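Morning, I've got a small favour to ask if you have a moment. I'm working through a protein record and want to make sense of it properly. The fold is given in discrete form, as structure tokens running alongside the sequence. Can you walk me through what the tokens say about the fold? Thanks so much in advance, here it is:
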Amino acid sequence: MTRKIIVIITLFVSVFSFAQKNNTSAYSFFGIGDKNNINTVEQLSMGGIGVAFNDAYHLNFSNPAAVAFLSFTNYTLAFENINMSAKDGNDKQKAGTTYLSYLAFGVPIGDKAGMSFGLLPNSSVGYSLVSSVFDNENILKEATLYNGDGGTNRVFLNFGYKAFKGFSVGLQGNYVFGKIENSIINQQEGASLATKYETRSNVKGYSLDVGFQYKTALNKKVDLNLGASFELSNTIDTEGNEYLYSVSIASFESPRDTILSVESVGYLKSPVKTSLGIGVGKEYKWFIGADYSFQNALELQGSIFNSYSKIKYDKYSKMAIGGFYIPKFNSISSYWERVTYRAGLKFEKTGLLVDAVGNGVDFTAVDDFGISFGVGLPLSQQLSNINLGFEFGKRGKTTDGLVQENYFNFRLSLSLNDKWFKKIEIF
């Protein structure tokens, strides 16, 4: 057991020791970046559902109450490959990236409780955009380069408890941290030097999640699952520096005169986010469920975010539908009968409104739609498995000066189960 604990600690340290670029979206320019999907590969393969779902062999990031149903020690990690094609009506570009998307560990505590902890990506920044201005003779008069990198991570500690038969409650604490760098370089015709505006921010904050789940049998063949989770209101703080200076970019970027160097602060205030879930199914056989999440508008405040005049936030909502099917969970004769087949879809109003025209009036919503599917492949005769997930989707649109992103995401996770604190039983 000591060796297993050392391996897990080593994995966590390795994650903290390097930075990853895990975004290629133009929309990651705003705020503290793109908000990541806080779900496992298994959940994302079913459209992202999970508020009402639980089982004995997998972790669930959607509802802290689900860990109470865990029967085995579970450690899981996942990788994600993002491939994106973006177009704005005039041009089209492609980009891709691969990164470690989460690392988590869960353990049952007796027969009525469980706990888990892990590291998840919270938000990500990764963009490189060029804006050009031409005169009537199609001669370049001005060029502006936008670059951003970094993001935030989330460390969580979760505890769930079965209050009575079929009903569990959960509490999860989160610590958010990270670094974000944004820069804007402007070069005008006839000027020997370009102007660069740069912000470097350290982000940190705390949040708290609570949830409950209830499971009961409708009859001998169908169970009913209900669930709700609440991400309580919180504030994420950013502290950093703003710089404005001239640069020479003839061969490589060389800073010259510093015009501005000040300390800056910012705040991202998030109101309560509510997620409700319902589902029906038969344990270890099939499940169909739906989740609905909603939240009032986010608030950006502080000098770091004062330049975001072209965006504002509206109410957020997301509807997800999905499920899984296992032909025969304990089949001995056929491997493929023990495979888990998953599918789902999502409709998401991100809450982000962009005024691409810049007149302060025409704010357009950036919405997201995705279709997902995947499989869970058993490892030998064990209860562990490899999970493969695929997702096709579209975010934004080309009208009103926006960017439409068509994406294909491939996900891979390991969900490994073992008995650390229980005597081995013969089934």
Notes: The longest strand covers residues 140-164. Residues 1-19 have pLDDT under 50 and may be disordered. The radius of gyration is 24 Å. Residues 56 and 69 are 6 Å apart (CA to CA).
